[in-house]
Design goal:
Blueprint lengths: L2 H5 L3 H10 L4 H24 L14 H16 L1 H24 L4 H23 L11 H17 L4
Length: 162
């Protein structure tokens, strides 16, 4: 591998590397549920952090939407087409956060934290069955690659080139 290409990690290389520790069918099934749920819980937790009072009048401006913006920029740099799918999924997560806030008595951060811990428990169980450590132990950016990895399967099923 050349020096330049070893420094530049393409979306395909990242997805392939992530997939190496996600071969077991049971682990994959867990990831199809837990990864989107964890994505939502992280959004919900950041959404719950109060913003400085100067921003209180700005609709939808909170730490969760800022985190989503940064995440979508990351996905866009890797693959603009894949970022569109992740943007749509992110919008669904925002809708779910707003619905939760309006309908569940338990504060958003508490509900999200409970679900976050449970979902990660399942993730670690899946990796125990797989016999491989989660990818993010090697590189923290794989926390963002997991959702994109799932989206790549959706794109392949739909015949969309990313």
């Amino acid at each position: 591998m050349s020096e330049v290409s070893s420094k530049v990690r393409t979306i395909d290389a990242l997805l392939a590397e992530y997939g190496e520790s996600h071969q077991n069918p049971f682990n994959k099934k867990i990831h199809w549920i837990a990864v989107p749920v964890i994505f939502w819980t992280v959004l919900a937790l950041f959404w719950s952090v109060p913003v400085p009072s100067i921003f209180n009048g700005v609709p939808m401006l909170n730490w969760g939407t800022l985190l989503l913006l940064a995440t979508l920029v990351y996905y866009f740099v890797l693959s603009p087409v894949l970022a569109i799918g992740m943007g749509n999924f992110s919008l669904l997560c925002v809708i779910a956060v707003r619905a939760y806030e309006k309908s569940i008595a338990l504060p958003l951060w508490q509900g999200a934290l409970i679900v976050f811990v449970i979902a990660w428990g399942f993730q670690f169980w899946g990796h125990k069955v797989e016999g491989k450590k989660p990818s993010f132990f090697k590189d923290v950016q794989f926390l963002l690659i997991g959702p994109a990895w799932l989206m790549s399967f959706v794109y392949k099923r739909l015949g969309i080139i990313y």
